[in-house]
Amino acid sequence: MKRLSLVLVAAMLATSPAYAQERTQTYCDSYAKVKSGSSATAAGATTGIVGGAALGGIVNGSKGAKRGAVTGGLIGGINGNAADKQKYNHFYHHCLSGKAL
Protein backbone atom coordinates (compact mmCIF):
# COMPACT_ATOMS: atom_id res chain seq x y z
CA MET A 1 0.00 0.00 0.00
CA LYS A 2 2.87 2.36 0.78
CA ARG A 3 4.39 1.66 -2.63
CA LEU A 4 1.12 2.53 -4.37
CA SER A 5 0.85 5.75 -2.35
CA LEU A 6 4.37 6.78 -3.36
CA VAL A 7 3.61 6.12 -7.02
CA LEU A 8 0.42 8.16 -6.83
CA VAL A 9 2.20 11.07 -5.10
CA ALA A 10 5.00 10.98 -7.68
CA ALA A 11 2.46 10.98 -10.52
CA MET A 12 0.62 13.94 -8.99
CA LEU A 13 3.84 15.92 -8.59
CA ALA A 14 4.98 15.18 -12.12
CA THR A 15 1.70 16.36 -13.66
CA SER A 16 1.00 19.34 -11.41
CA PRO A 17 1.20 22.82 -13.01
CA ALA A 18 4.12 23.78 -10.80
CA TYR A 19 6.31 21.09 -12.37
CA ALA A 20 4.86 20.70 -15.87
CA GLN A 21 4.41 23.63 -18.27
CA GLU A 22 1.40 23.23 -20.52
CA ARG A 23 2.53 23.71 -24.10
CA THR A 24 0.08 26.18 -25.50
CA GLN A 25 0.54 27.95 -28.84
CA THR A 26 1.58 31.10 -26.98
CA TYR A 27 4.20 29.24 -24.94
CA CYS A 28 5.60 27.49 -28.02
CA ASP A 29 5.66 30.79 -29.92
CA SER A 30 7.77 32.40 -27.20
CA TYR A 31 10.02 29.34 -26.98
CA ALA A 32 10.58 29.28 -30.75
CA LYS A 33 11.33 33.02 -30.91
CA VAL A 34 13.97 32.72 -28.20
CA LYS A 35 15.58 29.60 -29.66
CA SER A 36 15.62 30.73 -33.31
CA GLY A 37 16.70 34.34 -32.88
CA SER A 38 17.45 36.49 -35.91
CA SER A 39 21.14 35.86 -36.44
CA ALA A 40 20.79 34.61 -40.02
CA THR A 41 19.00 37.80 -41.07
CA ALA A 42 21.75 39.98 -39.66
CA ALA A 43 24.51 37.78 -41.07
CA GLY A 44 22.87 37.66 -44.50
CA ALA A 45 22.42 41.42 -44.63
CA THR A 46 26.00 42.06 -43.50
CA THR A 47 27.44 39.65 -46.03
CA GLY A 48 25.24 41.16 -48.75
CA ILE A 49 26.31 44.70 -47.91
CA VAL A 50 30.02 43.87 -47.96
CA GLY A 51 29.83 41.70 -51.06
CA GLY A 52 27.56 44.09 -52.93
CA ALA A 53 29.71 47.11 -52.11
CA ALA A 54 32.87 45.32 -53.21
CA LEU A 55 31.40 44.10 -56.49
CA GLY A 56 29.63 47.40 -57.21
CA GLY A 57 32.80 49.33 -56.45
CA ILE A 58 34.80 47.22 -58.88
CA VAL A 59 32.21 47.61 -61.64
CA ASN A 60 31.17 51.26 -61.22
CA GLY A 61 33.27 53.04 -58.60
CA SER A 62 31.79 54.71 -55.52
CA LYS A 63 28.31 55.10 -57.04
CA GLY A 64 28.28 51.37 -57.84
CA ALA A 65 29.51 50.55 -54.34
CA LYS A 66 26.57 52.38 -52.79
CA ARG A 67 24.05 50.71 -55.06
CA GLY A 68 25.69 47.32 -54.60
CA ALA A 69 25.65 47.66 -50.82
CA VAL A 70 21.94 48.50 -50.75
CA THR A 71 21.01 45.74 -53.18
CA GLY A 72 23.25 43.16 -51.51
CA GLY A 73 21.94 44.07 -48.06
CA LEU A 74 18.34 43.64 -49.16
CA ILE A 75 18.93 40.32 -50.90
CA GLY A 76 21.10 38.98 -48.06
CA GLY A 77 18.58 40.07 -45.42
CA ILE A 78 15.70 38.43 -47.28
CA ASN A 79 17.61 35.16 -47.65
CA GLY A 80 18.67 35.25 -43.99
CA ASN A 81 15.10 35.96 -42.90
CA ALA A 82 13.91 32.85 -44.75
CA ALA A 83 16.48 30.77 -42.85
CA ASP A 84 15.34 32.28 -39.54
CA LYS A 85 11.71 31.44 -40.35
CA GLN A 86 12.69 27.83 -41.05
CA LYS A 87 14.44 27.63 -37.65
CA TYR A 88 11.43 29.22 -35.93
CA ASN A 89 9.01 26.76 -37.56
CA HIS A 90 11.22 23.83 -36.55
CA PHE A 91 11.34 24.87 -32.88
CA TYR A 92 7.64 25.80 -32.80
CA HIS A 93 6.45 22.44 -34.15
CA HIS A 94 8.97 20.58 -32.00
CA CYS A 95 7.51 22.29 -28.92
CA LEU A 96 3.90 21.56 -29.92
CA SER A 97 4.70 17.90 -30.55
CA GLY A 98 5.35 17.38 -26.85
CA LYS A 99 8.92 16.14 -27.26
CA ALA A 100 11.52 17.05 -24.67
CA LEU A 101 12.76 20.62 -25.00
Task: Kindly describe this structure.
- With 101 residues, the chain is mainly alpha-helical.
- The chain has one domain.
- Helices cover 83% and strands 0% of the residues.
- Helix 2 runs antiparallel to helix 3.
- The protein is rod-shaped.
- The protein starts with a helix and ends in a 5-residue tail after the last helix.
- The mean pLDDT is 83.
What is the total tally of β strands? Answer: 0
What characteristic shape results from the CA principal axes? Answer: rod-shaped
Mean of residue pLDDT?
A: 83
Oligomer type: single chain
Quickly give the structural class.
mainly alpha
Helical stretch count?
Answer: 3
Strand content: under 5%
List keywords for this structure.
rod-shaped, 101 residues, 0% strand, mainly alpha
Brief sketch in words of this structure:
The protein is mainly α. It has one domain. The protein has helices at residues 2-15, 25-36, 39-96.
Describe the SSE topology.
Layout: H1 2-15, H2 25-36, H3 39-96
